[in-house]
Structure formats: C-alpha cells, structure tokens
Amino acid sequence: MTAVADAPQTEIEGVSSPRSVVVGIMAGVGVQIGVLLDANAPVSVMTEPLLKVVNSRLRELGEPPLEATGRGRWALCLVDGSPLRATQSLTEQEVYDGDRLWIRFIPDTEKRSQVIEHISTAVASNLSKRFASIDPVVAVQVGASMVAIGVVLASGVLGWWRWHHNTWLTTIFASVVAVLVLAVSLLLLMRAKTDPDRRVADIMLMSGLAPLAVAAAAAPPGPVGSPQAVLGFGVLSVAATLALRFTGRRLGIYTAIVTISVVATLAGLARMVAAAGAVTLFSSTVLASVLLYHAAPRCRDGWPGYGCRCFRPRPAGGSSRPVPTCPPRW
Fold this sequence. Notes:
Blueprint: E1 9-10, E2 16-17, E3 20-27, E4 31-38, H1 43-61, E5 72-77, E6 100-107, H2 119-130, H3 136-164, H4 169-191, H5 195-217, H6 226-247, H7 251-274, H8 278-301, E7 311-312, E8 323-324
Parallel strand pairs: 3-6
Antiparallel strand pairs: 1-2, 3-4, 5-6, 7-8
Helix pairs in contact: 3-4, 3-5, 4-5, 5-6, 6-7
C-alpha cells in the first residue's frame, strides 16, 4: 500500500492531528512489513485491504500467505497480542509512527444456536433431528396411503348414507369409486417392476375393496339388514380371494379379510333364511372360532391339499409352516 503523507495540519486549537502513520506489520515467521496507514480511519475499514497487501508482499518474499483457520476474524493487535478496537482510529488508540502492530486471526470460540422465531420452524427443526429425511420412494408410498385412507373414509360415508336413506345413489357413487380405484391399481400392478412399486399397487388394490363391498351391499332395496350383509361380505370375500390369487402377496391380510367375510356371510345367511337371533349367531361364531383355533394345527398336518402345487413344506429342521410357491401373475 503506497500513499503520500500529507503535511500535518493545525486545528483550531493549535494541536496537530496526523493524517497517516508508518507502522511495521508483523506477519508470518520473523517478517516485518512497513506500511502507511490512515491515522484517522477506523481500524475495521483498513483490516481487509491491509491483509491483501501483506499477503501479496509475503508471496513476493517467498513466505506462505496468511490464511484463516476455522471461524473467526482478522484483527490488528499490539505486540503483546491485545487487539485494537475496531471502531476507533489509530490516533485514538495512541498508535504513532514507528510503532509495530501484529495482524493475526482471532478464532471465534462462542457457541451459536439456531434462533427459532416461529413454532413451525421449531417443529420442523425437531422433526428433522428425530426422523430421517424422506426419499421419493417413501413419499410415493405415503401418498398412496393417504389416497387409500380417503377411499376407505368415502366408502364409510356412503355406507352411512345408505343406512339412513333408501336410495340407489350410494350404489352408483360407490361403484364409480371402486371402478376408478381398481383400474388404477391394476395399471400400477402391470407396470410395477420393483418391490416399492408393487407395495404401492397393493395399497391401492386393498383400498378398492371397500367401495366395491359398499356398492354390493347397497344394491338390495329396502332397509339395511341381512340381505345387504350377505351380498356385501360375499362380494368382499370373493374379491379378496381373487386379489390373493393374482398377486400372491399380502397373504395374512387377505386371509383375514376372507375369513371375516365368510363368517359374516354365513351369519347373515342364517339370519336371512332361518331368522336366527343375534345371541345365537354370536355364540355360534365364537364357539366355531374357538374350535377351529384349537384344531388348526391338526387340520394343517392332516389336510389333504397340503402337498398341492401352491404350497410346499419347509426343509427338515425348520418350521412346518407352508410356503407359497406359485409365482404371482403381477
């Protein structure tokens, strides 16, 4: 940095006020560079330009330039290491010609924390620390789940409307929803290539069973009773069986749906034909469930179709649970 020193000017009081000073800047290892600085400018204004001049001079001398390490700031200091006040000038801090200064990097040791001004920012910050980020695959599954929940809720609203109103509108609307959802699920199944894609298609397919059952149950005219239950649960059991047959996945979910639907269909049929009471139907259902539950292991071991082409036992030493071997259509 080169400049021409102006002659000292005398103020009104008669005291001379220097405009510039020549100081020695210590930088690097055993290097002192003489520079001309403005005596009346704040130190903060001269720090960055001075750093550039000192680095260029160090490169000319073959010395390594000054570099920042971490978070902090550059400051002009006295020879004892105490930094000069950045808002005051050299004259105000009694730095005159011939004095030596030290330019060094002062690290920032203060710990900073994020300032949260809104509750939405706090919620987002805490959730990002507690849960992992969502990738596109998970986002698609979440979206499919939200659509499936909406379809099931819409089916429930249509069923509630049919309960209070004897109209064909429930059947029409539920049929339209079922056709759209099942068409979308079949399209996704045909285009699925990976397990996440098949999972999304299965979610849509299972949600499409709800409006289909509601449409079938709302078809018989008259007050809601056993005929509606027989037709609705019967169609649901058949649809779940076909979905399991063509996909070969979600064996536990579809088995539970088919089992409950068959039991409800038989109960509704007994109510419709034999006019059986609710207590009789409930007691018979519980008794049959308990008997089948206890007889399930023996029935499985002695079931004649256990060795069919769709199931095979596990190897010796492992579980005897049957494993499906038929490849799914989709």
